[in-house]
Write a structure and sequence with these properties.
It contains 14 helices and eleven strands. By secondary structure, it is α+β, with helices and mostly antiparallel strands. Strands 6, 7, 8, 9 and 10 form a five-stranded antiparallel beta sheet that branches.
Amino acid sequence: MKSAVETLNPTRVRLSIEVPFEELKDSLDAAYKKINQQVTVKGFRKGKIPNRVIDQRFGRGAVLEEAVNDALPKFYTEAVNEGELNVLGQPEVDITELKDGELLAFTAEVDVRPEIEIPDYSGIEVTVDALEVTDEDVEKAVEQLRERFASTNPVERAAAEGDVVTIDLEAKVDGEVLEDGVAAGVSYTIGSGELLDGIDEAVTGLEAGGEATFTSELKGGSAEGKEAEVTVKVTAVAARELPELDDDFAQMASEFDTLAELREDSRKRLENTKQYDQATQAQERVLDELLKLAEVPIPEKLLADEVQTRKHNLEHHQLGQMGLDLEKYLEIQGKTLEEFENETSEQAIKGIKTQFILDELVNKEKLNVNQEELTEHLMRRAASSGMSPDQFAQAVVEGGQVPMLVGEVARGKALAVVVEAAKVVDTNGEIVELEDDEETEEATETVEAAEGTEAAEEKDGKNEA
């Protein structure tokens, strides 16, 4: 077999391949055998029809077509390996010559990973939010905990903000009561914003037995999005009572004996959360700066596939679970279809660039992923998927996705290398020293977010053809 590679552009090549006919022998034998099992000829047992009879009855052309279809993937793969190409996706194959007994010649155009020069990233500098936890932050966290332990007691007075009212609802559209527009015994906290627009104003000031009517746009049901006339009747009013902020509350709501200890624990938790957010912010901003420094050609077909995949996942998975279609989603977001498509394309480009650059950095820095790192990543992915680690691991192995997980961790390690070399300062001008613990896993999460729903590696067609 002879092969030659022609570079069409930085992300696409054409392979020209010539195969001497004798190298098709195995595929020809397989073609005759396959046809033998599929056809019947009077006077011959099934599977025992001579090749010359198959040629006479069904035509040599049918045999050649079957043999060529069988042989093309093998010769294409050999040419890819010979050319040391890193191909993406499936090739477009064109048979240019087929001479029975002499020669098979064909071309294959395919996208390839572009050659990328890793820029000098040592000069990257980013600014992140300062790690500050105020007394006000602590009191807000304690107050939220206090709210969780609030009790309600019936009162004989008009309802006010913060009260819990029990209400009956009836919604009419065009004067007709909706079948799904009636509800009784609904519990609602005034001011929570959890029901219809306008309901807070309607029930505030009403006592048990009071009734009011207001108009509101329905947020769900058979008449979603339509203006409805809603009648609300208050059947009970209850006041929420918060527990006293003292040591007894600390003992009831936590493992601590004193309110001071509870506040100190809240402060530490907030510091840990803000430290995590600060690290994530640093990684995201360093990655953005790295992407600005590198020139990365984007394969057109890969980009088109990625955009289509993102749109499909949004429409058929995320929006489907929320009971929305794309049109309604765009209306809620206040975007035109053109704006949405441009935004999706930009996100896809960023995801592809991220993977290409970090994969190149993995190779350059000779970064490896050990079993412990892979297991940690698998555990986190399992938790986010709602599956047990064993179930997730089994699904990953059966789906042949282990290399994908390894790639995710490796790219996370590559980003951590860049972050470590970068200068990170906070809004106070102080140098930020990021913790090494869990840094790779956090960086991996940042990379996943940048890559989006479908990583380019999943489309790597080197072993698919």
